[in-house]
Amino acid sequence: MTKNIYEYKDGSDWYVAEWGQSASYSEFEQVPVEASEILDRLESILAEEELGLPLNITVIRYGSAFRFLTFLLDILNQETGRKLELLQRQGALLLVEGGKLLYVHLPQTGVDLQAFLGAKDVKDTLLIATRNEGKTAEFRKLFGKLGYEVENLNDYPDLPEVAETGMTFEENARLKAETISKLTGKMVLADDSGLQVDVLGGLPGVWSARFAGVGATDDENNIKLLHELAMVFDIKDRSAHFHTTLVVASPDKESLVVEADWPGYIAHEPKGENGFGYDPLFLVGETGKTSAELTIDEKNAQSHRAQAVQKLLEVFPAWQSKQSS
């Protein structure tokens, strides 16, 4: 490796740097913590790519962290072919490359979040692919604790309806999530959930929302289900489970899929005022209580949707960090 000497000098700053095989980096007391920390971050970035940082720096006069770091980045870009930049925003220093944020150094006093991000809403938005406010309320309760702003399709009245033409829960969830994500450019979560009754061969299944016909109300679907089970008297023969498939889609990215089930039985008559859909008929496990008799917190602690969300949260960070396909 050829040794190259670089120098920067003005009225307040004077640095000399040597790039070469025998050069080494050592701490320098004159430079404040923000410059030192960003230099450490640069070292780790280059080490990950096995490029190294053979740089020896002499600080003769020091006045500006931004000027000092810009000098170093100019050297790195020339020697390695990188395109690193340093930006200043609201007192913070941002290390960026190719439109990607690599590192942020904040002042000790912090920064105003809204001013820093340049947006009124600073939370990530998750669009739930449903117009059902009951379902949305459950997701909002679950994801609100994780710092997400939850929207649903009622916030986007001009979006077309996505026909659920799939023959499986996953097919329908994918159709909704991926179509709406492409139309809006947003991260979209869609679920296809349904009740599967064993004695009915898994029905109503993917047709749960329209068991009594297209546009059927919850009451009409419940009445239809009770009619189908009219001759099944023993509660043990009325076993069933709620199933959920969740799909999270983001533009130009492979979708994330998780599934979960919630076992129980179908009651002989509806009970409870909470929930929606088949909740008044679904007896939770061996508790003797219907889902509609649970509070939203009790339901969110054990439901098929809550279990699926828990699985989602376990794999979501790794999925989100993956590069777009």
What does this protein look like?
With 325 residues, this protein is of the alpha+beta class. The chain folds into two domains: 4-114, no CATH class; 125-321, Maf protein. Helix content is 30%, strand content 25%. The protein has eight helices and twelve strands. The strands form three sheets. It has a six-stranded mixed beta sheet with strand order 8-7-9-10-11-12. A hairpin with a 2-residue loop joins strand 4 (84-89) and strand 5. Helix 1 packs parallel to helix 2 (65-80). The longest helix is centred in the last third of the chain and has 18 residues, at 304-321. The chain is elongated, with a radius of gyration of 29 Å. The model has no long low-confidence stretch (mean pLDDT 86). It holds the Pfam family Ham1p_like. The active site is at residue 192. Mg(2+) binds at residue 192. This is dITP/XTP pyrophosphatase. It is an enzyme of class 3 (hydrolase).
Set down the secondary structure blueprint.
Elements: E1 4-9, E2 14-19, H1 33-48, E3 55-61, H2 65-80, E4 84-89, E5 92-97, E6 100-105, H3 113-117, E7 124-128, H4 133-144, E8 148-152, H5 169-184, E9 188-197, H6 218-228, E10 239-249, E11 256-266, E12 282-284, H7 296-300, H8 304-321
Parallel strand pairs: 7-8, 7-9
Antiparallel strand pairs: 1-2, 2-3, 4-5, 5-6, 9-10, 10-11, 11-12
Helix pairs in contact: 1-2
Order of SSEs, N→C? EEHEHEEEHEHEHEHEEEHH
Report helical residue fraction. 25-40%
Count helical runs. Answer: 8
CATH fold-type name of the largest domain: Maf protein
Could you name the ranges where pLDDT drops below 50 across 5 or more consecutive residues? none
N- and C-termini, Cα separation: 36 Å
Shape: elongated
CATH architectural grouping of the largest domain: Alpha-Beta Complex
Radius of gyration: 29 Å
Q: Describe the biggest sheet?
A: 6 strands, mixed
Strand order of the largest sheet: 8-7-9-10-11-12
Instruction: Note the beta-strand portion.
Output: 25-35%
Q: How confident is the prediction overall: mean pLDDT?
A: 86
Number of strands: 12
For this structure, what is the CATH class of the largest domain?
Alpha Beta
Number of domains: 2
Structural class: alpha+beta
Active site: 192 (proton acceptor)
Cofactor: Mg(2+)
Keywords: Hydrolase, Magnesium, Metal-binding, Nucleotide metabolism, Nucleotide-binding
EC number: 3.6.1.66
